[in-house]
Write a structure and sequence with these properties.
Elements: H1 17-43, H2 50-71, H3 79-104, H4 112-129, H5 142-154, E1 162-165, E2 168-174, E3 177-179, H6 182-205, E4 207-211, E5 214-217, H7 223-239, H8 242-260, H9 264-283, H10 285-295, H11 300-305, H12 309-320, H13 343-376, H14 380-404, H15 422-443, E6 451-454, H16 460-467, E7 499-502
Parallel strand pairs: 6-7
Antiparallel strand pairs: 1-2, 2-3, 4-5
Helix pairs in contact: 1-2, 1-3, 3-4, 3-13, 4-15, 5-6, 6-8, 6-14, 6-15, 7-8, 7-9, 8-9, 8-14, 9-10, 12-13, 13-14, 13-15, 14-15
Keywords: Cell shape, Membrane, Transmembrane, Transmembrane helix
Main location: membrane
Pfam families: FTSW_RODA_SPOVE
């Protein structure tokens, strides 16, 4: 996967921070209007706390915007406002549902204050992640990220810590709150996959036999895919969690495809996962029940004796029609888990098809901006990381909306930024921070950011010379060409001040490639990346 010769985003000379500020104002107004219209439709008057709530939302928007302006001044101006709008709509809908739960005295579903706390924690982590000055330092934590991700994955199996909810053992209890650690696993494994694949993609891209017009990879290079497949199946069988298993395996397969540009990996991945999903659907009671409730949702026996949440969700969205019943005028609480798994049906009932489409457009904008960032980055690790994080959001949205609309079985995943779920909300704010950091690097003009040369992508012979601590460009004169010119380039590094080379930092093996280092000796260009 080669970088484009010139980045369209890198040509920008404006940071876009004022555009971001204007969009954040619009996002805050969208979120606040949900609270106000709900109160007006239910009580006929604006709530007394509207002024306080509006002030809090404005303060949060100002703080986050100023933090991005300071830490990532060249970041994409659309990513953050889109997430704030989605989070604000989610808080408004959860608050509206709390009004009904309060009347019904269903206090176990009263979660608005907790979601506000999780939002504050997610924003704090967002600001903390932006403290990382350069995303490339994450490459030195690749194996640590993998180990930490697997530890989070097995935490629910620890006695007195993990709990089983709704048939799936994917939660841990933290005082009065529960947390799903696998949500953080997807972020950590995205970092590991990007680092691993950029260092090994040459081997993984090698073709073996040609079958039915398709070049299959060599057998020995299937080992990484089989390991991730095994971990995904372990999650599926041990935790009865089809959603997390699908998310982790899909993340790896798509990142592998992007790294190697070989469709055969997608076919092999599907060929591995489909039999495992079939086995789960026929042998695991929890997954089998979900499949049956999906296939026979409208059967009377299933509706009366097994599960009525999916038909009720479809009935609610149908009653909403094109424009919806209006904030606070519907009956979304008739559907179980209306504020988490089925928040899409709640929004569909009160905002209609128009509201759902508007929210899906916000997700499309967020995903498109993430993929555009991936295309504009100049190093392989950044490209794969941005692609993996964007695909994680896209796959999660597809799985949730597909489940609620009965396109696919329900999986238990939640809508990013929108639904109640502290673990999902926190993890998605971390993903957002990484995308903001990556977009900051992608949009920096050449006058402020060097053209990146990733040593992991250099030919083996040249990489060996570059990574040699005794290597001196001046000594190459007479052997490989003019002084400061690697063999075969036909141009001196000294002739292009924007080209720098990135050698591995302390603690990173030479095979892993690039990450920022300290100041190079005088007269020696700093190597900070690769553009093959």
């Amino acid at each position: 996967m080669s970088a484009p010769p010139a980045s369209p985003l890198g040509a920008h000379r404006t940071t876009g921070r004022w555009a971001e500020a204007a969009l954040i104002v619009v996002a805050v107004i969208i979120g606040l209007s949900g609270f106000v219209f709900t109160a007006l439709n239910r009580t006929g008057a604006s709530p007394a706390q509207s002024l306080l709530l509006g002030g809090a939302l404005v303060l949060i928007g100002i703080v986050v915007h100023l933090w991005v302006r300071w830490k990532a001044p060249w970041a994409d101006p659309v990513i953050l406002p889109t997430a704030i709008a989605l989070n604000g709509i989610g808080l408004a809908m959860i608050s509206r549902l709390d009004m009904s739960y309060k009347i019904l005295e269903a206090w176990q579903y009263y979660v608005g204050p907790r979601q506000a706390i999780w939002t504050g924690l997610g924003i704090a982590l967002f600001c903390g992640v932006l403290m990382i000055p350069d995303y490339r330092v994450l490459r030195r934590w690749d194996w640590s990220a993998m180990v930490a991700g697997l530890i989070f994955l097995i935490l629910p199996f620890i006695p007195f810590l993990g709990v089983q909810i709704n048939g799936a053992r994917i939660w841990i209890r933290l005082g009065p709150m529960s947390f799903q650690p696998a949500e953080l696993t997807k972020v950590l494994l995205a970092v590991f996959f990007a680092s691993f694949l950029v260092a090994n993609r040459d081997n993984l891209a090698l073709a073996g036999r040609r079958v039915m017009g398709m070049n299959l990879p060599r057998a020995r290079h299937l080992v990484p895919l089989l390991i991730v497949w095994g971990v995904s199946i372990m999650v599926l069988v041990a935790q009865s969690d089809l959603g997390t298993s699908l998310l982790l395996f899909g993340l790896f397969v798509v990142t592998l495809y992007v790294a190697t540009d070989r469709p055969s990996w997608l076919i092999i991945g599907a060929g591995l996962f489909v039999p495992a999903a079939w086995f789960a659907a026929t042998h695991l009671a929890h997954v089998q029940a979900r499949i049956q409730n999906w296939l026979h949702a409208m059967d009377r026996d299933v509706y009366e004796n097994s599960s009525r949440q999916l038909p009720d969700a479809l009935f609610g969205m149908a009653s909403g029609g094109l424009t919806g019943s209006g904030w606070g005028k519907g009956y979304p609480t008739l559907v179980p888990f209306a504020n988490s798994d089925f928040i899409v049906s709640s929004i569909g009932e009160e905002l209609g098809l128009t509201g759902i489409l508007a929210i899906l457009v916000l997700y499309i904008v967020l995903i498109e901006r993430g993929l555009r960032t991936a295309m504009s980055l100049r190093d392989g690790f950044g490209k794969l990381l941005a692609t993996g994080l964007s695909f994680t959001i896209a796959l999660q949205v597809f799985v949730v909306v597909g489940g609620v609309t009965r396109l696919i079985p329900l999986t238990g995943l939640t809508m990013p930024f929108l639904a109640y779920g502290g673990s999902s909300l926190v993890a998605n704010w971390v993903i957002l921070a990484l995308l903001v950091r990556l977009s900051d690097a992608a949009r920096r003009p050449p006058s402020t950011a060097p053209r990146i040369i990733d040593t992991a992508e250099l030919p083996a012979g040249l990489r060996k010379l570059v990574l040699d601590p005794d290597f001196d460009f001046d000594e190459m004169h007479g052997a490989d060409g003019p002084a400061g010119t690697p063999s075969g380039t036909g141009r001196s590094f000294d002739e292009d001040p924007d080209i720098t080379i990135d050698t591995p930092p302390d603690g990173v093996s030479k095979q892993q490639g690039s990450a920022p280092t300290g100041t190079a000796p005088q007269g020696t260009p700093r190597v900070e990346g690769v553009q093959p």
